[in-house]
């Protein structure tokens, strides 16, 4: 379990270093790493690393540079990312980083499984778009429609923030009736969601929001 402050997540990555084990503890301490794998915690679109399994590339080579983050962070971290970047040869990879991997040095992978425990970091790009609607105001209608396709478990984790976003859109964009109807549909969708037996324990969260946090006077 790794605890990371919310403001640090976008700048952080996890690194896995591989060393030979020796029967002598003193030798272990001096043993140079022969491989390194890493994974970024934040995707380029601002969403958080997806829960599940990730096949990390193990970059191998007797090179002290591999322990310097600057030398590998520009390289693909997973097999999927490597395929997307279409870098089948070591030559192409060399242009991406300063730690000179070759095709043979990247043939192995290391599988990890991750679960993000947070009520502030979402793995869904459509929900993120709604929560950050002020910085992406031309997409409000799109994000309101897409909200109703987001998996229920992700929405209930962000229930107060999602409701705040909906009511703020209604109040701050009151001159556009299109948003009123979309916000209304979204609210009906969320209330129906919490009426589902699977999410009924979030009723208390909704009630607390209504009685203690709701303050959208124009939407009242």
TrEMBL record:
* One Gene Ontology CC term in the entry: plasma membrane
The organism's superkingdom is given as Eukaryota
**PROSITE patterns, per the entry:** C2_DOCK
- One record GO biological process: myoblast fusion
C2 DOCK-type domain span = 1-117
A Pfam family for this UniProt protein? DOCK-C2
Q: Where are the transmembrane segments?
A: none
The molecular function terms of the Gene Ontology recorded here are: guanyl-nucleotide exchange factor activity; small GTPase binding
Alphabetized PANTHER family for the sequence: DEDICATOR OF CYTOKINESIS (PTHR45653), DEDICATOR OF CYTOKINESIS PROTEIN 5 (PTHR45653:SF3)
Family to which the UniProt record says this protein belongs: Belongs to the DOCK family.
Instruction: Quote the protein name from its UniProt record.
Output: DOCK5 protein
Q: Which organism is it from?
A: Cinclus mexicanus
């Amino acid at each position: 379990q790794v605890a990371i402050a919310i403001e640090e997540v976008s700048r952080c990555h996890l690194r896995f270093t591989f060393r030979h084990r020796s029967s002598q503890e003193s030798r272990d301490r001096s043993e140079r790493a022969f491989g390194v794998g890493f994974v970024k915690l934040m995707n380029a679109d601002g969403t958080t690393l997806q829960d599940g399994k990730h096949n990390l590339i193990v970059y191998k080579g007797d090179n002290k540079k591999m322990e310097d983050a600057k030398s590998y962070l520009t390289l693909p971290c997973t097999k999927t990312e490597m395929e997307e970047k279409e870098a089948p040869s070591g030559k192409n990879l060399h242009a991406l980083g300063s730690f000179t991997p070759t095709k043979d040095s990247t043939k192995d992978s290391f599988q990890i499984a991750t679960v993000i425990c947070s009520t502030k970091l979402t793995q869904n790009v459509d929900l993120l778009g709604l929560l950050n609607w002020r910085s992406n105001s031309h997409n409000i209608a799109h994000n309101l429609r897409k909200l109703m396709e987001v998996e229920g478990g992700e929405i209930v984790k962000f229930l107060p923030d999602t409701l705040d976003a909906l009511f703020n859109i209604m109040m701050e964009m009151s001159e556009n009736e299109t948003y009123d109807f979309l916000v209304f549909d979204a609210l009906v969708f969320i209330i129906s969601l919490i009426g589902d037996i699977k999410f009924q324990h979030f009723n208390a969260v909704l009630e607390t929001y209504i009685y203690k946090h709701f303050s959208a006077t124009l939407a009242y």
